[in-house]
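Exam revision sheet. Question 4 asks you to relate a sequence to its structure. Input first:
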Amino acid sequence: MSGPSAVHAQSVVRTAVFAERTGLVQRTWVEYRPVGVPAGESLPTVLVLHPGASSPQNIANTSGWNAVADASRLMIIYPGAMPGTAPTSGIWNAWRWDGGPVPEGTPPSIAARDDLGFLAALIDHLGTRPSERADSSRVFMTGFSSGAMMTATFAGAGLRSVAAFAPVSGGWCDAYGVPESFCKPAGPVPVWFWRGKGEDSIVTSGVSRIVQDQQQREFWIRWNGAAATPDATDSRPVTGTRTTQSGSTVVTVTHNTAIYRSGGAEFRATEVIGGTHEYQVGSAPRIWSEFFSRFSLVVPGVNNADRDGDGRVRIEDLYLMSTSPVDLTGDAQANFGDTSALEAFLRRGEVGTMAGGF
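Answer key, structure tokens:
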């Protein structure tokens, strides 16, 4: 693994070689840590996935996550999809689950790429390197457009290395010829889904985005076991910066949010009035302060995972959890979601091979 290859303010471009299904591949990411954080301090970490035909630096410039990192002491990782030839440069190989079909319209050069394995191996690397480590119990993932679809792909892969997800303005698998029956997350999963009202006219394979967005909303409500009616709603004007190739402007949009808490994990869906196909204005600080910051993964010996007190986390603890749950996921609730989280943790050796690199 190499050291930094370029530095921009507190952003560092890093490269490393990862073992993917297709062999050893060198991959790149941009890494941001706030000024003054000691190298030995592990930080909560957010992976932010760029859209298609874009780059890690582009999403770093437009998403607002560096400012959130400064305010909340986070590490932000901007992974890069491998470039190809136009117009496929920087597109993630989303919707590639074990046993599922190749998504419609995927070029062969992208179909052979193991982006799921890369992200899983990158998370493992960040949590185990000697310094500047990620807090492995507090890793989160978000992304825009193609990056949002890759975020949902990781959420549906049955892995257990990310505590919560926030896909922003991305389509849904059915429109790409991959039935959602192949999407099998590791138990209930905290998800905050975002869309812009201005995306209604986008169409993929004859399926409008308004239909795709409703499909993924219904999937996560059903998967998490929530009631069809939200437990709470929230509508608020938000002022923030919209950055495009033409420059930056300050705009005010409205975030209309439905919150579903009745299931095993919380699901939120926000439609942004005044929002277009973009990493939604004002979303990054809210995703952190209201959502990601509240969740963590089960870690052996931490958060009461050792239910029988024998110093080990094993199947006997899962039985005790099913009869008397405690809060393991850090959401201040003790319910079925905590039991599912412990089950997923205990099974991580089985499902980890799905992504390679574990």
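Marking note for examiners. The chain is about 25% helix and 25% strand.
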